[in-house]
Amino acid sequence: MDFNQMSNMNSSQQLNDRQRTAQFGLQDLLQEEQYQQSPVTHTKSLADDYLTRPRSQNQNQINANNSNNLIASSKNSNQNTNQSINDSASQSSGSNNIVSALIPNIVYDIIHHYWQKEPIQQNEQQQKQVIKKIQKDEAPKFKPSHQNDYRQQLIDLGVKDKYILNGEQYIKDIQAGLKSATFRLEGKLILTNFKLIYVVTNGKYESLGSPDFYQIQLMMIQSCERTVEKKGNQFSYIDIECKDVRKYQFRFNFDQNEESQEFMGLLIDNAFNKEIYKYPAFVYKKYNDEEQQFNGWNIYNIKKEFERMRINIYDPTQQNSNSNQEQFYYKYLNNELKDICDTYPPYLVVPYFMQEETIKKCSKFRSRERLPVLTFGFKSSNEQKLPVTLWRCSQCRTGFSSRSTEDEQMLRLIGDPTNKDNRSSNNVNVHIYDARPFMNAVGNKLAGKGYESNSCYKNCDIQFLDIHNIHKVRDSYNKLVSVCLSSDQQIKWFKEVDSSQWLEHISSIIQGAVRICQSMLANNHVVVHCSDGWDRTSQLCSLAQIFLDPYYRTIEGFCSLIQKDWVYFGHQFNLRQGHGQRNQSEETSPIFLQFLDCVHQVQNYYPLSFEFNEQFLVDLAFSSYNCQYGTFLANSYQELVKQDIIKQTISVWSFLLSKRHIYENPFYKKDDQIQTLKPDFQQRSLKIWNRYFFFYQFQRLDEYKIEQQKCRFNEDNIQNQHKKSQEALQFYESLLKELKIQIPKQRVTPKDLANLVKQSIIKDYEAQQVFKQDSEYNEEDYDIILKQSSHIVNQNSRQMN
């Protein structure tokens, strides 16, 4: 383009150029060494001057600057681009400086685009407020130029742009073979700060499996070992096992031994980093503003939640508003200082007539100080004064002879919250469900803990649910994964699945939740606990609420439920998911995955009752391991707050809600009334969760270049399918009518039917139906038809020969 063409650019083109400069020019300019300070420092003085003048005045100077700069750059067109900019900048001053021309444009466009809620006007006060925002570095975060460099570097290595996450940075790559029981691939193994990426170079297997198969998020790696052959070709291998039922073996040639060893060291440093601030979630937030607008950290609000349940709770912080309300039987208790329990949420709900000192004594009598607190309740009718309630806690410290009058008072008030005088009663109105097998509970007495006795807790009925602990669940899961990954064609699948006992554990949890629901529907208050009250207790309470309340079967309700009963109530996600652990510890166990599997089983049983689909559960399971979001990084909500994770990461609910259209169940039937689910918990009704356990299993579809496609349901194509089914039904009905017309209504003999068969008016099986419907015909008559029909067929075949 010559100078005349440049000077004749219309104003709209200039504006587009300026907008592009605002997006990309600032990144490149301010990343240079001469601009090491904050962008705010360089733009402040220019912004002060620029914003205090009218827009038109600024535009005139911009046009002048652009013309001068274009002339300067035109004169130096034969020189290097960077040199021409430096020359024009050094020979010019004021308006002739290209940086001075770019920066005002950038400042205006930044403010105009990102601070629309505070529009820039002539008002001086508003302008100063905008400048203060820039001075505080509250302006939006741009993707720095080096991030584009990292992205391009990965693209050059063969990684598709859509699979590169924002904030992902290249670390190292190496040539490697990928070995499997059914194939061997050749390609390039790439390590980034987020994941391992395998780029296949032998095109024959390019479409083998799903794209996710070739991407291993680093926090998904459960174990990683390197071995070297002592004989033969002396290949070196890196064996990787993942938390999401994947297993890889990468092979390296003899001359790559040192390089593969270096690669292994970098992989271990990035995949098994126990410093929580180095997890992907902290990097991911900087470059993903879209998901943050859904504000998933606020998905659960304790006060709004109990208002939705129609349970009136006294709030000490709002005494004036509470004074005119009806009598309260429950109250909020402040636990922000963790003086009651350091693994419980900041606010608890306890019986109204329990004094704070009594509550603290009660907490000391419970393991980990996790006293009984209210998590759910419902009223079956508007006339019902008191709700039926669900409470959760940990085991008590009874040992063989200890007791606590404060804890006994708590259980009495749970059964009768109006019992202000703490009267003793033998009326059983509280069902305590201990999740453990009875013998395990007895064994805990040796450690000074145990379970409630009927002699002390006279208003309670104690039942054991026989659900096994985290160690049994971990062993069961490992056995099932081993079966799922087995390449043995002779494996006895059903026998091996049964021996893993995974479905047995799933069945026991669902059965326990059903029993809890039955007690509550019979107007009994329920208390649930296991050993420490953060594993099996969370599973049972969550499932029971899903069965009882349709709200928790919606997308928002389910997210809120997990935030409440898992995150807020202190399920130890960091330990159970094994974040940063190179090998499984004794505290690692797939408890949360087991809960999601239970939900999946119920979802299969009631496919119309859940607003979310199966993929929602699968992605939630994967998100609990990959550390891309902050929700599952810590062992309690208080830990999330203490380590400032909430402010520095994105909630997983922000991600899921931003993709809501993907996760909606098109067959969901909304029911505003309480519709209790009563799923069948027998093992015969349960199935292996194929979409999770076989998510990365694939078939060799590339031979015919067939690509897998996902069926996407929406209102239009569902109506289209319905229309087609109606058309098909009408077609078959018309065929039946024609058939009835062709067959004589009067009684026919077997010979007549044989003639109909001969004329191809009806088939043999249709003649058979005539005999079945008419009791006067018998088997001998039908034999006549068969003989005559076969005779006709034989005669026709002889004529053809």
Explain what the structure shows.
- The protein is of the alpha+beta class.
- The protein folds into 4 domains: 3-135, no CATH class; 145-272, Roll (PH-domain like), CATH 2.30.29; 298-681, no CATH class; 744-800, no CATH class.
- The strands form 3 sheets. It has a 7-stranded antiparallel β-sheet with strand order 4-3-2-1-7-6-5. A 5-stranded mixed β-sheet has the order 10-11-14-12-13, with helices on both faces. A two-stranded antiparallel ribbon has the order 8-9.
- The protein is globular.
- The termini are far apart.
- This is Myotubularin-related protein.
Quickly list its features.
7-stranded antiparallel β-sheet; alpha+beta; 46% helix; 801 residues; disordered C terminus; Myotubularin-like_Pase_dom; PH-like_dom_sf; Myotubularin-related protein; 4 domains; disordered N terminus; Prot-tyrosine_phosphatase-like
What order do the helices and strands come in, and which of them pair?
Blueprint: H1 3-7, H2 11-30, H3 39-51, H4 55-75, H5 81-91, H6 98-114, H7 124-135, H8 145-156, E1 170-179, E2 184-192, E3 195-200, E4 215-217, E5 221-228, E6 236-242, E7 247-252, H9 257-271, H10 280-284, H11 289-292, H12 302-308, H13 319-322, E8 330-334, E9 347-351, H14 356-364, E10 373-378, E11 388-393, H15 405-415, E12 430-434, H16 438-444, E13 460-464, H17 470-485, H18 493-500, H19 502-521, E14 525-529, H20 536-548, H21 555-568, H22 573-576, H23 591-605, H24 614-626, H25 637-642, H26 645-648, H27 652-658, H28 660-663, H29 690-693, H30 715-742, H31 750-758, H32 764-773, H33 779-800
Parallel strand pairs: 11-14, 12-13, 12-14
Antiparallel strand pairs: 1-2, 1-7, 2-3, 3-4, 5-6, 6-7, 8-9, 10-11
Family: Belongs to the protein-tyrosine phosphatase family. Non-receptor class myotubularin subfamily.
GO cellular component, one term: cytoplasm
Organism: Tetrahymena thermophila (strain SB210)
